[in-house]
Amino acid sequence: MTTSSVLPPSALPTLTIPRSALGPQGWTALMAAVITVVVLAPVLNLVVPADSAFHLSDFALALIGKIMCYAICALAMDLIWGYTGILSLGHGLFFALGGYGMGMYLMRQIGRDGSYKSDLPDFMVFLDWKTVPWHWTFSESFIAQMILVVLVPGLIAFVFGFFAFRSRIKGVYFSIITQALTYAAMLLFFRNETGFGGNNGFTDFKRILDIPLAQPSTRMVLFVITGLTLIGFYLMARWLVNTKFGRVLQAIRDAENRVMFCGYNPLAYKLAIWTLSAVMCAIAGALYVPQVGIINPGEMSAASGIEIAIWAAVGGRATLIGPIIGAFFVNGAKSWFTQVFPEFWLYFLGMLFILVTLFLPNGIVGGVKQLFNKKAEVKA
Asked: Where does residue 300 fall: left (phi above 0), alpha (psi -120 to 50 degrees), or beta otherwise?
C-alpha cells in the first residue's frame, strides 16, 4: 500500500515552501532588524546626547534586551506548541537553568570584591562552607559553563521527553506534568544546601570575562549579542519548519496517528524539537542574567511558564514572528502597567488573554492577516 493511499495530500498540513524562506519583504525586514540591533541602538545609546529626544536610555536598553530574551523563549514555545501541538508549561525551568549556569560563572567572577572578601561566593561564606560544591567545579571557566548551559538543560529535556513521549503522554496531562516538574525544581533550588543561593539566588555581579558589567560598552555588547541570537534563532526556525522535518512536525500536530500509520516514528521528531526548544530557552536565560543582574528560583514559578505560552498565543501560534511580537507587546505593556497601575497588571493580563482567545484566536499576526485578506476580497 502506497503512502498516498494511506494519507492523501489533502489530509496533510499544507505548507507552501517559497524559493526563499523569507521572500523579498522578509529579507528587507530582517536586514532592518539587524541594522537596528547592530547600528541604530548603539548609536542612540552611546553617541546621541542624554538630553536629546532620540537618546536611548540605559533603562530602555536593558528593558529591550530583557524582552529579546523572552522573545527567544516565545519562539521556542512556538516550535513545540504552534508547529508540533505540544503545550509545555515548564519552559521556565530551562530558562532558569541557563540563567543559573551563567550566574554561577558570574558569581565566581566577583572574586574577593564580595562583602566577605573571600574567594567563595558570599552566600557560601554566610553558610560557613569551606569549599565550593562539586557541581561548581567548572564555574570559573566561561567556556565550560557555556557548554553546561546547553548540555544540562538539553539532557534534562531529552530524558524527560523520552519517557513522556514514549508513554504517549499528551495534551493537558503533559502540560500538568511539565508544570509539576518545574515546581519541584523550584522547591529544590529554594533549599540552601543545594548550593544555588536559596531564596535570594545569585546577584551583585561585577564582571564577565574580567570586563566590568556596569561599563556601557559591555551592556551594549550583551544587547547586540542577544539581538543577533534572536535573529539567528528566527532564521533557524524559519528554515526548520520549511523542511521535511518541519512538515512532519505539523502532521504530528494535526494527525499523529496517521503519521504513525505512514511509517514515521513521532517519538524521534517530538523528542528532537522538544530538546531544541529547551536549549533555546536555556541560552535565552544565560543572556538574560548578565543584563538583568539577578537570577533566583522565582524564574521557575508556575506563572513564568504560563506567561511564555501567553506570549505565543497573543502573537499568533505557528507564525514564528507572532510569538516574538507577542513577547514585545505583553512585556512592553507589563512594563508600563507595573509603573502606572501596578495593582491592575494581573487583571489586564487575564483580560488580554481572554480577549485574544475570543476575538483573535490566531493571535495578533493571524488577525492582521485576516484583515488584509478581507480587504483583498473586497477589492476583488
From this structure: alpha
Q: What is the pLDDT of residue 376?
A: 67
Question: How many distinct structural domains can be found in the chain?
Answer: 1
Residue 350 forms part of a structural domain: no
Helix 216-241 and helix 321-340: axis angle, to 10°? 140
Tell me the per-residue pLDDT of 84-100, one tens digit each, with 9 for 90 and over: 999 999 999 999 999 99
Average pLDDT, the chain: 90
pLDDT of 378 over the 90 cut: no
Q: How far apart are CA 299 and CA 296, in angstroms?
A: 6
Q: Is residue 93 part of a domain?
A: yes
Residues spanned by the domain of 273: 35-304
φ/ψ (deg, to 5) at 12: -85, 150
Per this entry, what is the length of the chain? Answer: 380
pLDDT at 217: 93
The grid coordinates listed for 176 are: 500538568
Going by C-alpha positions, the residue among 177, 155, 287, 169 that lies closest to residue 230 is 287
pTM attached to this predicted model: 0.92
Is the pLDDT higher at 91 or at 354?
Answer: 91
Is residue 11, in this structure, part of any structural domain at all?
no
Residue 207 maps to a domain: yes
